[in-house]
Amino acid sequence: MTCNTSPYLLAEPPTSTGRALLARAVSHWCGLHFGHSPEEIAAALDPAAACDPDVRKEVGLASRLLGELIGCGELRTYARPFGGGSPEALPAAYWELDDFRSRMALSALDPKRPFDGDADPTHWIFVSLEDFNRVVEQSCEGFLPPEDTASDAALARQIGAAPASIVPSSGAVDRHVRLPELVRRTGMSRSTIYRRISEDRFPQSLPLDGNISVWRESEVAAWLADPR
């Protein structure tokens, strides 16, 4: 078996009990924090593909962060042969890399040649769901897939995450909502949110210093009660 198709675009990605395919973990992380779709992530990790420079930069940052967490032992990873077999723990030292993007793009490697970029991969890479859920919770105090698909919802349940409530708490209606939370609460990707804004079908954002955009809680709550 070879990785001719990006693991981010597989209709039925490989599974392993108690673990998530590395590509699934990267996809969920980027969707949660940046609102990127699997297609956008796959393109960002492919040097030959056309991609928005900002998306490529954000996916690169996510790849580096997750790679460094794996390298320091915060996220345990496992290698399982293509086609099935027993997963074996990957030493954290196998992640002593200068650039993690190629490994993130393949979500696979040859454990016998972990630092050979030209080696044909033989094993899928999986991430401990327990570790990944803990890291996600520490990063944003919650987790919800960026798109409402059956496979993503199943992974969220495996990770043990509860969907964020779409009902604002009383007394919090005037607070500001940032994009990652907006993605979680609406179930829409970042690109969908901005497309709806351009179509006047979603509340306008409020620019803050540092090119940060936020939304009024009251306006988001009103849209959730009556989406258009």
Automatic annotation (TrEMBL):
It holds the Pfam family Phage_AlpA. This is Helix-turn-helix transcriptional regulator. It comes from Sphingomonas floccifaciens.
